[in-house]
Design the sequence.
């Protein structure tokens, strides 16, 4: 919900986007690496 609120989109839209990205990540090593780099920037 927090992500949706931040970007002005619904929880459902956030959930769908996350599932779509996960499917792409599993199919494409380049996407997996890109997502990994993005996520590593947010870890505390």
Sequence:
């Amino acid at each position: 919900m927090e992500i949706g609120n931040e970007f002005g989109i619904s929880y459902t839209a956030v959930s769908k986007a996350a599932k779509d990205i996960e499917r792409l990540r599993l199919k494409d090593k380049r996407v997996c690496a890109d997502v990994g780099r993005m996520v590593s920037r947010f870890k505390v």
Notes: The radius of gyration is 12 Å. Residues 19-44 form one domain.
